[in-house]
Amino acid sequence: DGGITQSPKYLFRKEGQNVTLSCEQNLNHDAMYWYRQDPGQGLRLIYYSQIVNDFQKGDIAEGYSVSREKKESFPLTVTSAQKNPTAFYLCASSIESTDNEQFFGPGTRLTVL
Amino acid sequence: AQSVTQPDIHITVSEGASLELRCNYSYGATPYLFWYVQSPGQGLQLLLKYFSGDTLVQGIKGFEAEFKRSQSSFNLRKPSVHWSDAAEYFCAVGADGNQFYFGTGTSLTVIP
């Protein structure tokens, strides 16, 4: 079955540590996205990529980094520079066209201890 | 600038009652509009989408939405709510560059 997988589902991190969230898709989609979700704030765009080896900052990119070395994969690193990283992180992908929906993964809940 | 407003943070309805969730958008060009649903701790699932044509759009799980350009609205409706509809609902507008702009969501509680 085609879809988007995110791992792990739950992640715990100590302050000062970097952590990488995985996102893989087998939908053959060109575009991939990372969102952060906090209660009452909806989804906020962190980074997005429309093609391999290229990505753009979203609205809240500070403290995060990404790579897009393969079409199927778009990992997100939460660095120690992110001051408030505890949140629910969602990865999505879409065909590169404005009128196409985004397909979402199940999410990763990151908790900083 | 593009934006999406969902004025109702939380709505409670009785099972079997009708439902309307409000969504207003701000976008300069022809909007591409979406409604998604999210169960607790899960990803988002597409309910329906509007690109052009008929302004009344049918989706999954018995939901529909109506695009009203004059009111910049895209409200979601369901004639009879089921307990399993309890979830968070997000309205979104698709913009240039494949970016989506999401509303802050409406949490739906269904009481027996």
Give a structural overview.
The complex is a heterodimer of chains A (113) and B (112). With 113 residues, chain A is mainly beta. Helix content of chain A is 0%, strand content 51%. Chain A is built from no helices and 11 strands. Chain A has strands spanning 4-7, 10-13, 19-25, 31-38, 42-51, 54-57, 64-66, 76-78, 87-94, 103-104, 108-112. Chain A is globular. The model of chain A has no long low-confidence stretch (mean pLDDT 92). Chain B has 112 residues and is mostly beta strands. In chain B, strands 2, 5, 6, 10, 11 and 12 form a 6-stranded mixed β-sheet that branches. Chain B starts with a strand and ends with a strand. The mean pLDDT of chain B is 92. The A-B interface holds A 4, 31, 33, 35, 40-43, 45, 48, 50, 56, 58, 88, 90, 92, 94, 96-107, 109 and B 9, 32, 34, 36, 41-46, 49, 51, 90, 94-100, 102-105.
What's the arrangement of secondary structure elements?
The complex is a heterodimer of chains A (113) and B (112).
Chain A: E1 4-7, E2 10-13, E3 19-25, E4 31-38, E5 42-51, E6 54-57, E7 64-66, E8 76-78, E9 87-94, E10 103-104, E11 108-112
Parallel strand pairs in A: 2-11
Antiparallel strand pairs in A: 1-3, 3-8, 4-5, 4-9, 5-6, 7-8, 9-10, 9-11
Chain B: E1 3-5, E2 10-14, E3 19-21, E4 24-26, E5 32-38, E6 44-50, E7 56-58, E8 64-68, E9 73-78, E10 87-94, E11 100-102, E12 106-111
Parallel strand pairs in B: 2-12
Antiparallel strand pairs in B: 1-4, 3-9, 5-6, 5-10, 7-8, 8-9, 10-11, 10-12
